[in-house]
Structure formats: C-alpha cells, structure tokens
C-alpha cells in the first residue's frame, strides 16, 4: 500500500484534498491511503522521521511564509525516495521546487481531474520504473524496505511486511527476476529480504526479522544462502546480521 501524507496550513484545503484522494483511490482501484495529514510543520517532520511515507503533498506557502521548499529539503535528508508533490497558489517557485526531485507541481485551486492525472501518472511511474517499490498485483505496490520475506502458499505468494500481509496469485519463478538483489531464496517456500534479518539460528535453520517474525532455511538452499550472508555476495550491507 502507498502511504500518502498531506501538509497544508489551510484546513479547508487539507480536508478537501484528503476527500478527493480517497475518492480517486476507490474509483481507480489504487491500493493507497492518506495515512497522515497536518497543518503543523513540526508534526510533519516527526511523522516522516518515524513512519513509512511514499508520497507527500506539501504546500509551499506555509504559515504565510515561503518555507515549504526548506521543509522539503529537510525531508529529503530523511527520505530520499519519497515522491514529492508541491501544492501552491504561485507559479514563481516552480523551477526551484523541481531541483528537489519533485514529482509534480500543482497550482491551486486543484481540480479533481488534474489531481487524478497526477496520481495515475504516479502509479504508472511506479509500475514501470526500477525503484524501491515492488508491484504485488495490478494496483498494489509495497516499499521493498518494508518486506521481511515472501512465502509461497500453493498458487499464491504472501508478502510479509513489518505491519501487514499482502497476497497475490503468482510464482517465485515469475517474480525472481524483478526482485532486488537483497531478496534471496532460502527455502522452497521462502524468499528472505536479507536487509531486514535481525539474526539467524543455524541449529534450527530459522531466520528472524526485526519484528520477531521468522521464516526457515531449507537444506537445498542452505549453502548458497549462507554464502550470501557470510561472504556478503549481495549488493547490500550484511555486516549487522547476527548468526548463532
């Protein structure tokens, strides 16, 4: 699921934007939600610092000052992959805004039609780009950093993340080529994201993740999997994984 966050000091606009986004998510069957909205810069920064945020709608003219750009700079330091969409009543900041890797720049008042075009272009971009989102099905995208492991259950794959599970009819053979290098087959029924492993118990062939969830290492895959862990035969940093 894509997590949208909204920040604007005009509460009427903020609530209207939330309502429009919710309607177009339903209309276009997009797996997304507005997970947080605020008119307070400090609350926005705290939320981005401690939560997963995929898309941010940010007003440039906050508190009657053009400080949205400086807020965006600070947010970029915390979350480089976040998709940033500026909302503003002014055209003159457009060039400066795009220097911050801005996905779009919407001038108020924002119509439902223009908002829908931007969101559909965003989901199309996520669908076709090699970025940090993994496509589960036609409308569901998951931040790869949130995935702990993928489990095969008959004709379905179940994506186990930090907070939720997502199901899709698919197979390991089809998704393997699309997964980042940090996803390693460890069992006939499991693919593990080595970036989220907290420790491994060799005597029980059990892999533990940061939220205490677990999957297992199968004998057929054990040597290759442990080579990745021990030698670091992956583009990811495996130095923090404890093996016992």
Order of helices and strands: EHEHEHEHEHEEEEEHEEEEEHE
Number of helices: 7
Structural class, please? alpha/beta
Cα distance, first to last residue?
Answer: 34 Å
* Parts with pLDDT < 50 across at least 5 consecutive residues: 233-237
Largest sheet: 5 strands, parallel
Radius of gyration: 20 Å
What is the average of the pLDDT values? 86
Count of DSSP E strands? Answer: 16
Main-sheet strand order equals 2-1-3-4-5
Strand content: 25-35%
What is the 3D shape?
elongated
Percent helix range: 25-40%
Short structural description:
The chain has 244 residues and is α/β, with parallel strands linked by helices. It is 30% helix and 32% strand. It is built from seven helices and 16 strands.
Could you explain how this protein is built, in words?
This protein has a five-stranded parallel β-sheet with strand order 2-1-3-4-5, sandwiched between helices. Helix 2 (41-50) packs parallel to helix 3. It is elongated. The protein has helices at 11-27, 41-50, 68-78, 94-98, 112-128, 172-175, 222-231, and strands at 2-7, 32-38, 55-59, 83-88, 102-107, 133-135, 141-143, 147-153, 156-161, 165-169, 183-187, 190-193, 197-201, 206-209, 214-216, 242-243. Residues 233-237 have low confidence and may be disordered. The protein is built from seven helices and 16 strands. The chain has 244 residues and is of the alpha/beta class.
Task: Set out the fold topology.
Layout: E1 2-7, H1 11-27, E2 32-38, H2 41-50, E3 55-59, H3 68-78, E4 83-88, H4 94-98, E5 102-107, H5 112-128, E6 133-135, E7 141-143, E8 147-153, E9 156-161, E10 165-169, H6 172-175, E11 183-187, E12 190-193, E13 197-201, E14 206-209, E15 214-216, H7 222-231, E16 242-243
């Amino acid at each position: 699921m894509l997590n949208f966050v909204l920040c604007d000091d005009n509460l009427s606009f903020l609530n209207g934007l939330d309502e429009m986004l919710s309607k177009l998510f339903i209309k276009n069957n997009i797996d997304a939600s507005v997970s947080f909205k605020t008119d307070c810069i400090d609350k926005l920064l705290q939320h981005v610092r401690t939560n997963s945020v995929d898309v941010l709608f940010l007003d440039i003219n906050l508190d009657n000052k053009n400080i949205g750009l400086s807020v965006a700079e600070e947010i970029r330091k915390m979350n480089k992959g976040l998709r940033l969409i500026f909302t503003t009543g002014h055209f003159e900041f457009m060039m400066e805004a795009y220097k911050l890797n801005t996905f779009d720049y919407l001038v108020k008042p924002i119509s439902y039609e223009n908002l829908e075009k931007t969101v559909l272009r965003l989901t199309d971009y996520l669908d076709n780009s090699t970025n940090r989102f993994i496509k589960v099905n036609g409308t569901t995208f998951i931040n790869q950093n949130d995935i702990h492991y993928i489990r095969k259950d008959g004709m379905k794959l179940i994506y186990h993340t930090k907070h939720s599970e997502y199901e899709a009819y698919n197979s390991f053979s089809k998704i393997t080529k699309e997964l980042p290098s940090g996803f390693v087959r460890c069992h006939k029924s499991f693919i593990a994201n080595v970036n989220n492993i907290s420790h491994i118990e060799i005597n029980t062939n059990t892999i533990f993740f940061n939220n205490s969830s677990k999957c297992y290492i199968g004998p057929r895959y054990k040597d290759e999997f442990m080579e990745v862990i021990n030698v670091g035969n992956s583009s990811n940093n495996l130095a923090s994984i404890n093996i016992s």
